[in-house]
Design brief:
Length: 599
Amino acid sequence: MTKRLILLPVVFAFCAARTLGRMAKRNKLVWLLGFAAVTLWALVSVQNNGVFELDGNAFHNAAHDWDQVYADSLTNPPGTTSGAAAIAFDPDLFNTGNDNIFQGGGSKDTNGIQEGPWLWTTSKPQPKDDLIHSYAAAYTIQGDLILFVGADRYSNNGDSTIAFWFFQDGTVGLANTKQGGGLTFTGHHTNNDLLLISDFTVGGSTPVIHAFVWQGDDATGTLVDKGVLAAGTGFAIVNGSNAPSPWTFNDKGNTGGGNTFAPGEFFEGGVDITALFGAGNVPCFATFMAETRSSQSPTATLSDFTPPRSFPLCGMNATKTCSGGQINSDGKTVTYSFSGTIHNIGIGTLTGLAVSDTPGKQADGTVVFSQCSGPVGQASGQCWGNLVLNQPASTTLGPNATATYSGSFDTNFVAPSTFPNIAVASAGAGGNTVTASGDWSGSVGTGVCAPVPQAGLSLTKSCTTTVTSGNPISVTVNLTGTVTNNCSGSGCVDVSAITVTDTPTTTVTVDCSVTPPGTTCQGANGTLFLSPGASANLSGSLTNATCAVTDSGNTGGRCIFSDTFNASGTGSLGVGAVTALPAPATCSLCPNGACGTGN
């Protein structure tokens, strides 16, 4: 019995095989078609992606190509003809001693950018290593992120090794700080920075792509070998015959009279980044750079490079508008309201979306998100949440989606004209944080807040005189008038430290007894405080004033006396100086009431 039980699986397998064989014979065509379909499905690769052409030339035919990437790079912001999520087109000096090349023993791909340090100088590289242009483009194909890279060189008089760096630090670039016989780079390595190495052969070949990933920080990290990429995830090709150039190109041999790649002068390739890093772990690259080197060894001597170029694979834009302020009921603070949008311009979902607000002066307030608006298929409600300023929130924003936000703040400052108010949007993507001051992307929305609060002073003045006969005539001038903070409405502020002066010099007395209900008037002896709508009576006198007879007429002279009030103060909440238009008064009197014609 035991032997029979042991034999049962064997018998079952034999019978199953015979049955499958008979089915295969009866349905031979069906089986072959099915196998072919599975095979074709498995061969949908970087090379045969159906979106971007890797065929050894730069002009598009049935799909996108480098000529469209180049055309997109000529506008700011870049165009959309290529359909790429991110592009870079990077021209470089060539056949000149002013070209930038790597300098010094620390300039190795195995070293940190600052730890090496990487250094550069100006010199003339070998013709076969002399890059003229490099380029990159990112596409999402069947859910995977594919990075396409390319370059052209000055001469095909020998093989060269080419490499492409993708950094997550958007500040990687060239500095002018002298060190070790060269000049330094800016920026740092970030965990999962990517290096792709391949061969720039004489032409007509399909070189392999070798991938390396930086692990750790710039100071202590290392370059980890990920091996040669399989045909489905990495593909490269070098032109095997003359090929036209979409951009201005002049090689050493002036091939074709110009604008023609000789065999072995044009390289292009592609890498499935999602397959390399795994779904959900794709880094947010921000900077692209190409380089030539002595070999594929990671410790190879580096030669020419194209300057680091922005490659915003992930990112966001923020906008902001700020309305005019409104005086609060306390009369001492102003509320400003603002609103804006956040737009995910990258290819991945942003998480932990947050907004912080920085008014021009000390403020207090909150930012409140409203519902997302995005492309068709974008789930609504992904951007809801209440955010305390400068605090993160667990919100998400899908690719190309837009979120709106609004908020307000109170301040005791109002500029005389305008002052900036800045909203900084931040979020996380691929393990990184997207901020305006972060490593690679983000933007600032600046709203200029125009102050509504106003203040105004107005003056009135009149006078009477008492005359004592004589020559000269003695005159006593009695002055009366009002000063008013004549601003009304919600946008008005107090005016303080008001000073009223008189020309000629007269002591002005302030009387607040006429102040309208609900307003405030403080002060005396020429200085006072007026809330909006408040008024004060002004009075003064000038004794022993003299004036000459100006018109004798038939029986006597006419005395004319002129006097002017002036007022100024300081508007509260930073409005600044407030000045009233001068208020003149002219008193005319005839001695003994007998001036004659022309009184």
